[in-house]
Structures are given as structure tokens and as C-alpha cells.
Amino acid sequence: MPSAKTFGKPPPPLEGLVFPVTGTDKDGKEERSTQTTGKAVVAAALAAVDKEAAEACRNEKSWRFKYIKHIVKSVELSAKSPEAALKVSAAGLKALHETFEFVRDGKTMSFAKAMSDIKSSFATGHIKGEKPKPAAFELGVPYKGQTLTGDALQTQLDKWVRLGVIELSAGAQISQVARSAPWLDLSDRYFVLLGAGAAMGPFQLLLNHGANVIAVDLDRPEIWERLITAARNSCGSITFPLKEGTAQEKCSTAPGAVGADGKKSYGADSLYSKAGCNLFTQTPEIKNWVTTVHPGKQLVVGGYAFLPGDLFPRVSLAMDAIIAELVKQRKARARDSGAILRNSCAIAAPFLHSPTAHPARPRHRPPSPSCARRPTCTSCRPPPPPPPRRTSTARRCGPTSSRCSRRRARRRTRCAARTSASRSSPPPARRSTCATRSSRRRGRTTRWRSGSSTGGRCSRATRGASSRRTSRRRRRRCR
């Protein structure tokens, strides 16, 4: 029987950094399960400090729906001490580097082996900004269509801290940087941006302050036209990879021509077509190139690439491997030359956290005596109490109506008295003769007849009129 026709695009061939093979399907094809790999990596991280937690993670049957508790367990174990946190992190990263695979020209090898065996690299391009360096730099924070500087920035920082938008420590650090003019001159600093074109990355901010940016991003001409143009119109500089064997002076920097379909086209000799690389498929080459750029300079290496789904673990692992190798080689060079790491060849590695990520912290801690702004500090003040439960009468009359509160209290007292009286004495016998009973609640007299056509109850018209009068009276009192 012929197979059903599919209209979707076929999956791209495997190339570069990929998840490992975890089994085969019914047709004998290899399967690369992200769930199986994730469970194994988390279990390896837990095994560094707690064998029982690691075994419980391995035996989890419903990993897709219950993986959260094992992630939380790893955070709890890491929060016990700095040593435990380092052990958990190191074990998890080691498992990732040893488990993931690298595919090149149809051949599969371990990711660690590919990073050590592949020796090819890139050529280097460099663009210096044409904008003159200002006499003094000023920190500006874009907010609601304007750039906050000076006193306006300080006022907004105080407001954010008071409302709990940012932590007190974050506001204090931004304020300190804004008031320290020498810190804002980055002309002697070098920043490696893995994923330089990321929307939340600091590429434009660094160029505005004269920094030297080593940019790594996809080999797409429109991306590099934007990055190189921004660098040329700033007081900073940009260093970027070019295809091996490319000479920058022979490349054209003309902007792309817009075609009839609205897309830009670039010539074969365009600098933008020759620039760029791929973190997935060219991870070893990027590592080899970055380790040779600006030797002896102090580097700040940031991983800013972000992709959805199973692509994010892959790109994160690629960035981690590049940073780890760069740190390793820079330390070895500094040790051989006798340089002091923190002054000449030190490396800092910031990362871009997800907006949904939150650091581990206790639910509530007592106010710190050293905190000067305890009333507005979100870390020192206790959590707010839950809102009071509002009843139907409170919704109708408002929570501050004392008359409604007294009426409800009297009604509860009468109900409790009737309940206790009915439990202590037997129910009275049903009367067979005509009886007249006064209803205090409705404020009127109703005649009950056992043999009448109403079946011992008042007529529908009488009950309806009484209900309407009572409702109007109740509304008037509540007003």
C-alpha cells in the first residue's frame, strides 16, 4: 500500500552538532530523543552529590510531565554550598560534551573529538568606526520611546526599585555605572559576542561607548550589512570572521540591491556575503578563530544566541565549548609567559538569561539591618497577605458596610438558635385547623389553610409581591 502523500518540507540533513542516537524506530531508523538525553544529563548532574536523587531521575517513567521536580531537586542540592553547585554544574556539562555528537560529511563523531581534531579556521575582517570619540560618555537607557540619562535615569531607577520592578542591588549598580564617567569609556576593552545580532544583545550599546567588538553571527548578508554599517557609524570597531582565503580589501561594501520581490541581492564579491559563520556546523572552526584574535588582550566573552525548542540546548552547548576552550588556552598562554591573569589575559563570561528564569532565593527572610531602604526593598519585606474573601453581600454592599455586617451577624445568630432548638425538642405536630402565623422576616401576616386550594401555602401572587417589597427594602438599606 503506498504511503500517504505529505506536503510539508522534508527535514534538513543532519549536519554539525546534534543530539545523540538513543534508539531505533520500527523501520530501523535512528532516533535522537531529546527527552531521553535530557533525563540522562540531569541524572549525571545529580549523581555528583546525591546518588538516590540520580537513581530516582533515571527511573522516572513520565519524564515529559514530571521532569520539573528533578530540576528543582538539582537546584536545591546546588544551593546547599558553592562546592555542591560547582559539582552539579561540572558533572552536567561533562555529560553534555561527552554525549552529544558532531556530524561532518556524513561521518559521526563525538562532539569533544570534533573540537580537538578539526583544525581549519577563518580569515579575519576588521572595520573601524568613522564617528569621532566624544569628550565624555554618558549612560543612556531607552525607555518608552526616549533615552533616560542623568537625573531622569536616577528618578526612574528609584521608581523601579520602589515598585519592585528591579532589585535594590540592580538599581544601585546601574546608578553607580551611570555616575562613573571613566567606566563608560570602553575603547580599550574587547568583547566577544557569540550571537552579535541578537535583539537583546549589547552590540549597539558597546559600539556607542567605543568598544572593540569581535562579532560572531550567521553567514547571512543582510545580518552583516546591518552589523558592519552600525560599526562604521559609531566610534567603536568590529572584528568578524570571513570565509577562509578571503581578502577584505578585494571585497565590495556596496549595499544590497532590492529586487522586485522586496529581497536584497548581493554580489559574489560582497563583503557581507563573505562574512559570518554557523555555530551549529562550524563550531570547531569558530573556536580555532576566536582563540587567535587579539592575542594578549583582556576579553569578555558573552553567549547571546537564542533559539526555540531543541535548537537552544545545541547552540548553548556550542557557545559553552567555545568559551571553555578560550579560557583554557588563554590561561595556558598566561601561565607560560608569566602574566598576571586579572590584569592582562583574564576572561569574563556573561550569559543572556531567559526572561522566565529566576534565581533561587528563600521565600522570606528577616529584614537586614544593613539595608538602608527596608520599606521599599523587595528582598526584606514579607510577602503581601492574600486578599480577603468577599461574600455575595459584600460584593453588593461593599466591604465597609457596617449595617450589612450587623445584619449578617444577627441572621447567623437566629439560624444557630433555631438549629439548637430543633435538635433539643421534637418537631411539633402538624396543625389540621386554620392557623395564623406572623412572618417577622417579611413584616406581614400570612394565613395558612390546610385544606385550601393553595395546598397549605400562600398564593403565588402574595409571595411574589412580598419578595419584591423585601428586595426593595434591602437595597434601600444597603445604600
Can I get a quick summary?
The chain contains 16 helices and 17 strands.
Could you characterize the architecture of this molecule?
- By secondary structure, the chain is α/β, with parallel strands linked by helices.
- The model is unreliable at 337-345, 372-376, 392-400 and 431-463 (pLDDT under 50).
- It starts with 15 loop residues before the first strand and ends with a helix.
- A hairpin with a 5-residue loop joins strand 12 (257-258) and strand 13 (264-265).
- Among the domains are: 16-114, no CATH class; 119-137 and 185-255 and 265-348, no CATH class; 139-181, no CATH class.
- The radius of gyration is 36 Å and the shape is extended.
- The longest helix is centred in the last third of the chain and has 27 residues, at 311-337.
- Helix 1 runs parallel beside helix 3 and helix 1 packs antiparallel against helix 4.
- Helices cover 42% and strands 13% of the residues.
- A 6-stranded mixed sheet has the order 6-11-10-9-14-15, with helices on both faces.
